Amino acid sequence: MTGARGTAGGTDLADATAEGAERVVVLATHNAHKVQELQRILGDALAGIRLVAYGGPEPVEDGTTFGENALIKARACAAHTGLPALADDSGIAVDALDGAPGIHSARYAGTRDDGDNLRLLLTNMAGIVERTAAFVCAAAFVVPASDPAARTWEHVEEGVWNGEVLTAAAGAGGFGYDPIFRPDGEHGSAAELSPAQKDTLSHRAKAFAAIAPVVREYFGTERAERAERA
């Protein structure tokens, strides 16, 4: 490990690894809201595996897809910490804007401020009747290169949450574009859903539910290999 530290839910990365690194996964994000959401989503699915926040450097996200960017972040996190890493890249894709903001969602307005991004999207959607859109999330799991089977365990899953862009923000919950996104089948915005509802329906919930079995399999296989070598 290279001295990286991170905290989430009262968990310090250095403390967690001291307790048993083989049961720790680092969440490769500096977004505190996302860390909390992922800990809720994955809490039951990855019971017994400690999920901690990442405090290391952010890589250049120069991929052309959500999946490529998720892998870039997970690889950088695993390399910096020496621990398995989970990362995601997500955003909103609007049909009328040819899929924009897409992979540029977090930096759409150039400020990385949620409010600025949201307001710019509403401005660019002014007068547009067809407002269908989707939240997209790619989740990536990567283990450190020091692991002989590192490439074998690189894995990406994608989740999609369909809906439409509202004409004005509604709701105080969630983050990002949640206040202006109405999911299909719902009467209000994603920001008006409870955390429990969102954790069941969202693009991020779908992507990480799909990748959780891979993480469980990795730790199960690793423990078995350690037992054989002992």
What do you see in this structure?
The protein is α/β, with parallel strands linked by helices. It has a single domain, classed as Maf protein (Alpha-Beta Complex). It is 35% helix and 20% strand. The strands form two sheets. The chain has a six-stranded mixed sheet with strand order 4-3-5-6-7-8. It has a two-stranded antiparallel ribbon with strand order 1-2. Helix 2 (32-42) links the parallel strand 3 (24-27) and strand 4 (50-53). The protein is globular. The two termini are 23 Å apart.
CATH architecture: Alpha-Beta Complex
CATH topology call: Maf protein
Molecular shape: globular
**Radius of gyration computed on alpha carbons:** 18 Å
**Major sheet: order of its strands?**
4-3-5-6-7-8
Give the overall pLDDT as a whole number: 87
Uncertain residue segments? 1-11
Structural class: alpha/beta
Number of domains: 1
Distance between the termini: 23 Å
> In what range is the share of β-strand residues?
15-25%
Which secondary structure elements does this structure contain, and how are they paired or packed?
Layout: E1 7-8, E2 11-12, H1 13-20, E3 24-27, H2 32-42, E4 50-53, H3 66-81, E5 85-94, H4 114-124, E6 132-142, E7 155-165, E8 181-183, H5 195-201, H6 203-229
Parallel strand pairs: 3-4, 3-5
Antiparallel strand pairs: 1-2, 5-6, 6-7, 7-8
